[in-house]
Amino acid sequence: MDHERLDAFVVSSPPNLRYLTGFTGSAGMLVVTARDARLVVDGRYASGAREGAASGGLAAVAVEPVPQRYDLALAEQLTRLAIRRAGFEPAAVTVATLGAWRRAAPAIEWVETAGAVEAMRAVKDAGEIGILREAAVRLSDVARALPTLVRAAATERDVARAIDRALERAGFERPAFDTIVASGPRSARPHVSPSDRRLTSGDLVVLDFGGVLDGYCVDLTRMAAVGRPVERALRLVHAVRESQEAAIETVAPGISGVAVDGAARRVLERHGLGEAFLHGTGHGLGLEVHEAPRLSRTPEDDVRLVEGMVCTIEPGAYVEGLGGARLEDDVLVTASGREVLTNAPRELLII
Ligand code: ZN
Ligand code: ZN
Predict the structure, then answer these.
(1) How far, in Å, is the centroid of ligand 1 from the Cα of 71?
(2) Residue 265: which pLDDT band, with cuts at 50, 70 and 90?
(3) How far away, in angstroms, is 224 Cα from ligand 1 center?
(4) Which among 310, 220, 320, 307 is positioned nearest to 275, based on CA atoms?
(5) DSSP helix, strand, coil percent of the chain (3-state; round to 5)
(6) What spacing in Å lies between the alpha carbon of 143 and ligand 1's midpoint?
(7) Which one of the ligands is nearest to 208 CA?
């Protein structure tokens, strides 16, 4: 706030609100000044938030109700605090919302302040690491159960539902995203939704799933095949595994995301699969399933890894007509290198 000369910073991204205060509602705003912070919430949440702030369940913030509309309540708070220059989170405020704020408080100068809380969230504290470690163990247990969940002749949707039920049994509050089961030719598309296609002899099957535990997301991908796949498909799977191992080996404090991505990419290029690697190597995990740091080849997004970051390593290769392969594990950056949090076997599961 000093750097941007802000009198106030308005936080409205739900995961950022949760991170800063513990508030888990679907709407709300935190008005942060140099002196204090006020949580502005509507009637659905006000009494719960007050109770939480008093009992220690939430950060010790003043709770301000929204009598009618958020824009009017925000304007009232900012006027009362004599704010002139206010930062806001451009990724969490629509054009329509910003227009309403401007109309409600025409004297305020609004300053786009991107990524401030996200940068704090990228480095996990001991409590967050404890949750992510436990979540990764539980997700690995679900992965170890894949031989009983993935059945030949079942549809992709059947398998996805079986995985979702296993996530629930493992104690996750919900899947972290829509479970991906992509078989045969559909496996060549990295993020396809499960369909009614039945798993057929000769298929490669990409199984990508995750769970949320105490608000924190973990994410894992394993490969299956229906019967022994053709030699070219086996080579694809092995190349991806080698690529993933190479990328994991590079993870350490001070290493750049582009360097980790490069390690994965070089292996696939060596196997003639550079063009088949259609996405970045990984993403941060936390209150959101995709957050900072991004591990990609885009220099503009580059980051240096720092102890306490948790990210996925998930190279893949996708060949039309043959199929696709991806392996994904969750890795914590430690003082001396890395700790792989997910511990399920990476071998191709042949069903
Ligand atoms: Zn995934
Ligand atoms: Zn992922």
Answers:
(1) 37
(2) very high
(3) 15
(4) 320
(5) 35, 25, 40
(6) 12
(7) 1
Token reading at 340: 């792989």
Q: What is the pLDDT of residues 107-159, one digit of tens each?
A: 999 999 999 999 999 999 999 999 999 999 999 999 999 999 999 999 999 99
- Indicate the pTM of the whole model: 0.94
Q: What is the mean pLDDT of the chain?
A: 96
Residue type, 138: R
* Spacing, Cα 290 to ligand 2 middle (Å): 7
Which ligand gives the minimal distance to the CA of 191?
Answer: 1
* Cα-to-centroid distance, 311 and ligand 2 (Å): 9
Q: CA 271, CA 279: separation in Å to the nearest integer? A: 17
Which pLDDT does position 300 carry in this prediction? 83
Tell me the two tokens of residue 218. Answer: 């973990």
In the numeric block, the tokens 């824009």 are attached to 71
**Count of alpha carbons within 13 angstroms of residue 13, beta-carbon side:** 21
How far does the centroid of ligand 2 lie from the alpha carbon of residue 180, in Å?
11
User: pLDDT of 61-118, one tens digit each?
Assistant: 999 999 999 999 999 999 999 999 999 999 999 999 999 999 999 999 999 999 999 9
Whether 60 has a pLDDT exceeding 90, the answer reads no
At which residue do the structure tokens 């007050």 appear? 50
Q: What is the pLDDT of residue 302?
A: 86
User: Which DSSP string do the residues of 98-167 spell out, in sequence order?
Assistant: HHHHHHH-TTPEEEE--SHHHHHHHS--HHHHHHHHHHHHHHHHHHHTHHHH--TT-BHHHHHHHHHHHH
Q: How far is the CA of 51 from the centre of ligand 1 (A)?
A: 37
Tell me the CA–centroid distance for residue 219 and ligand 1, in Å. Answer: 5
